[in-house]
């Protein structure tokens, strides 16, 4: 598999993850806390698949199989960082909405 295909695979997984995290925040706002938790867990699974793909790129580079720096790689890594940020935020929002609901 070439680097471009790997990047697209990474974008697919972390895009799924980010969507799950955003939907989890929306579900938490609606007080659907168990659904929000399911979405976060699903997002984490997708994120981990994307992260594993990213690790393959790093491994290839360590083995002197240089991956050319491209806009698609930069985009893939940007999407991965965005998903990670939404992961953190979704966990925080779920906690916050749960506390507010319990008051």
Description:
This protein has 103 residues and is mostly helical. Helices cover 86% and strands 0% of the residues. It has helices at 3-29, 33-62, 71-102. Helix 1 (3-29) packs parallel to helix 3 (71-102) and helix 2 (33-62) packs antiparallel against helix 3 (71-102). The termini are far apart. The model has no long low-confidence stretch (mean pLDDT 92).
- Could you name the ranges where pLDDT drops below 50 across 5 or more consecutive residues? none
Mean pLDDT: 92
What is the gyration radius calculated from CA atoms?
A: 16 Å
Q: What overall geometry do the principal axes of the alpha carbons give? A: elongated
Q: Compute the separation of the termini in Å.
A: 53 Å
| Counted beta strands | 0
- The H/E string reads HHH
Q: Can you count the helices?
A: 3
Which features characterize this protein?
single chain; 103 residues; mainly alpha; 3 helices; 86% helix; 0% strand; elongated
Topology, element by element:
Layout lengths: L2 H27 L3 H30 L8 H32 L1
In short:
This protein is mainly alpha-helical and 103 residues long.
């Amino acid at each position: 598999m070439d680097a471009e295909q790997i990047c697209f695979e990474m974008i697919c997984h972390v895009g799924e993850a980010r969507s799950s995290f955003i939907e989890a925040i929306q579900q938490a706002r609606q007080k659907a806390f168990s659904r929000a938790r399911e979405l976060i867990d699903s997002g984490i699974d997708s994120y981990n698949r994307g992260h594993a793909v990213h690790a393959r790129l790093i491994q290839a580079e360590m083995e002197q199989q240089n991956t050319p720096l491209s806009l698609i790689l930069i985009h893939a890594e940007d999407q991965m960082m965005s998903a990670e940020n939404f992961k953190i935020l979704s966990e925080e929002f779920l906690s916050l909405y749960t506390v507010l609901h319990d008051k």
